[in-house]
UniProtKB/TrEMBL annotation:
Keyword entries, A-Z: Oxidoreductase
Source organism superkingdom: Bacteria
Pfam families attached to this UniProt entry: adh_short
Entry GO MF terms: oxidoreductase activity
Similarity comment text for this entry: Belongs to the short-chain dehydrogenases/reductases (SDR) family.
PANTHER family: 3-OXOACYL-(ACYL-CARRIER-PROTEIN) REDUCTASE (AFU_ORTHOLOGUE AFUA_6G11210), SHORT-CHAIN DEHYDROGENASE_REDUCTASE FAMILY PROTEIN
Phylogenetic lineage: Bacteria, Bacillati, Actinomycetota, Actinomycetes, Micromonosporales
Species the sequence originates in: Planosporangium flavigriseum
Name assigned to this protein: Dehydrogenase
Amino acid sequence: MRVDGRVVVITGAAGGIGAALARRFAAEGAAGIVLSDLDLDAVTALAGELKVDAQGVRTDVTVSDEVRALVDAALRRYGRVDLFCSNAGITTGIGLEDGDALWQRSWAVNVQAHVYAARAVLPAMLERGEGYLLQTCSAAGLLTAVGDAPYTVTKHAAVALAEWLSITYGDRGIRVSALCPQGVDTPMLRDGLDAGHVGARVTAASGAVLSPDDVADAVIAGLADERFLILPHPEVGTYLAHKTQNPDRWLAGMRRLAGGIAG
């Protein structure tokens, strides 16, 4: 898929990867962009900066009716949604300690939000016989997030959902990509570093920390090739191969890495 002339919806668009995607899609000539976030002021301001038709919509992606309303707003304005970028996500920095509220919030944002988006946008896409779902899943969904159990588990679930959607709807004109970056210079990573989260420190130490614009470049290339896995950090593919070829060795290496960072 090429973005020029397309209608795009982006969640988690107030900053970081979401905002970078919006700017890049606008530069590519998108026909219209709907920017969604809890921070309405931020996405409204961003919409005003873009040199294409755009609007900001406040959406809590953990509420099914609000996600459906977001899709309905895009359909009313543009008549179609060509690409839905389910991008909102959160980290926690916790393990197995008593943090049920954070576990539930992680499931809601990192998994159920993707379910609600697909449920809302797929009927119109299937009726037209085409559409694209881009789901931000993180390298943690393929590998792990040391020190953050909820993030690891929910991002694995997000990749699994993307796989299921591709298998189920791929022959009906629906294309699916899982965006799996590693370290990206976003408020999420910076907040984790400021809080001293081991996972954020491992991520920052494990390879290059890309800018959100770098990720947007990778997305444009991945969409053009219609690749399922979009890996802004190519080394993630190498790590994944090592993991699948010899899980025990990979786990031992991750323990050493985590222990060195924590120490």
